[in-house]
Amino acid sequence: MPRYTVSDALVLRRSPLPSGDVVLTLLSEHGKWRAVARKGRLPGGNLARLSLFHDVTVQAYRRRDDDLAVLTQVRLNGALSGLTRPEAYPYAHVLAELTDALTVDTHVGERLLAVVASGLRGIGSHDDPEAVALAYAWHVLELAGLAPQVGAAAARPATVGDSPAVPAGPVPASAEATDTVAAPVCDRCGALATRLAVDAGRMRCDDHGDHVRDVWLGEDGARSLALAVRGPLRAAVLAPPEDRKRAWRALQAYVREHVSEVRAVTALARESA
Length: 273
Ligand SMILES: [Zn+2]
Hints:
8 strands; 2 domains; de novo design (two linked rop proteins); alpha+beta; CATH 2.40.50.140; single chain; binds zinc ion; 3-stranded antiparallel beta sheet
């Protein structure tokens, strides 16, 4: 085993120690790992390069395989300055903390790094960082194999239900494509879903949903969630749920049931309560 490794990484979490050293949780293509940056021991660099959400290339040293890696070189590839804006910061935390929670026991795969990096860039630059965070949060759940089942792609209601599958009024081409690609359907009857059965991880229509336990999303909220799960993410960001409070409460309930408490999500769900 080589003692030195070089990897691209995102800084998901940083914990300063009383000694001045900093323990970092990093996300690389091979998964999540932890390393320590010793105060005053990074040649040509400083700990500011290892700020939260930074995109870095690091060289790390391990004496033995099970040792905590010690960082010996850091190159900053991108500091996402937009993420320090107060309107973006809480949403960057949602994505970083959710990713951290999802990778506790499992290796989620190489795509995760690319998706999280793209989500952070979006949160830092988009004029609606909240929409970006919601879409990417559902999508990283999908990458971890934990997203709700949103029904078969391109499915139309098997029976003509109360809910029209196509919204009234003029439909732009993109919205029509959205409708056929990502309309979420009830797992019981195939009608357009409006609810999320949190514990079952399934979408339900009004007739088959549990009106006490399921989270009501509305048609637009359910559609946005389905787009986020199935992609394309760009379309999900462009079709955010209208009721953001409800969307955060749904995400919080779902994450708590299927992953763990994620403080940044809970904070937003409470704030909007
Ligand atoms: Zn149904």
